[in-house]
Design brief:
The protein has a two-stranded parallel sheet. A two-stranded parallel ribbon has the order 2-5. The protein is built from 5 helices and 6 strands. By secondary structure, the chain is of the alpha/beta class. Helix 3 packs across helix 5. It folds into 2 domains: 42 residues, no CATH class; 74 residues, no CATH class.
């Protein structure tokens, strides 16, 4: 059964509706004002593989991934530094979590993952 998201007024948000890409939902008759992204779908499996919690702010995840894509041949140390400096790094707030994400990114990049292209 689909989740119905209808008749909402979303004002002044970065992301209005955030849902997994495989969600069974209908989004109809909603109003968005001052919203950067009305509906954003994400791929939960790659995030999980990276060690990023499903509830992480997607704008911060995207920002960190875009920063990493600029240094595709980064070492784990460089990736850790880039993630630490990002808003996602601040949100994660834990050196161990940041290191796990950075290490996963480096391994995925070396494997030629389409997720990072």
């Amino acid at each position: 059964m689909a989740v119905l998201i209808s008749g909402n007024q979303i004002i002044g948000a970065i992301t209005g509706i955030l849902a997994p890409a495989d969600a069974d939902m209908q989004v109809i008759s909603n109003s968005f004002q001052g919203v950067k992204t009305a509906v954003q779908l994400y791929q939960p499996l790659p995030l999980k593989k990276l060690g990023i919690p499903a509830n992480a702010p997607m704008d911060q995840v995207n920002e960190a991934l875009e920063a990493f894509k600029k240094i595709p041949d980064a070492s784990v140390e460089q990736a850790t530094s880039a993630i630490s400096a990002s808003r996602l790094g601040q949100w994660l707030g834990n050196a161990e979590k940041i290191a796990k994400v950075a290490n996963s990114l480096v391994l995925m990049a070396k494997a030629g993952s389409d997720f990072l292209k």
